[in-house]
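Rather than argue in generalities, we have chosen a single entry, letters for residues, whole numbers for local backbone shapes, without further comment.
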Amino acid sequence: MKFVAHFLLAALMGIAVSPSFAADEPAAAPAKPAKPDLVKGEAAFAAKACASCHNADGNSAVPANPKLAQQHPEYLYKQLVEFKAGKRKNAVMQGMAATLSDGEMRDISWFMGSTKMKPGFAKDKATVALGEKIYRGGIADRQIPACAGCHSPDGAGIPAQYPRLGGQHADYIATELTMFRDNVRTNSIQMTGVAAKLNDREIKAVSDYIAGLR
């Protein structure tokens, strides 16, 4: 009788009750994203005309367009998501990413990660020493950290954290560093802080040095 009275009183007061003998339903587990499909990624890469800027194997022949081959797929996926959301600005890439589903972005990213990057090379002998100094040791008196600390000595980066840089087009790297410095590209707090302390000559030198890493 006490239980019934308690139940009726709670109901009158608008309180939801769950009898102690009723088992709570388990919460539904969040859906996991489907495993990336490299075959579908290759097909989507071709269908969306990505190759027109980045080449069929991801090794762009145009210095202004980045090589995507062998890039960490987690990094590529993050960039596509941020292009689509407008967090990273680029008129061409925002338009391209807008047409991609989440699954397509994953498949393309993992497909590109499975391809082999063609090595690049440094071109400016006059600044290669400065570029190496910045990349490997930073500039201590201006509190500029070594690029190698995050992107590794050979430019391979760290999967799921920092992108592969070695062999990338120097022109592309210089453009991105300048955009970070000038707050045009704002989707990495770390890179904004580092690039803010670099001048044009230093950006050019370290970008050229990175292009020759392998």
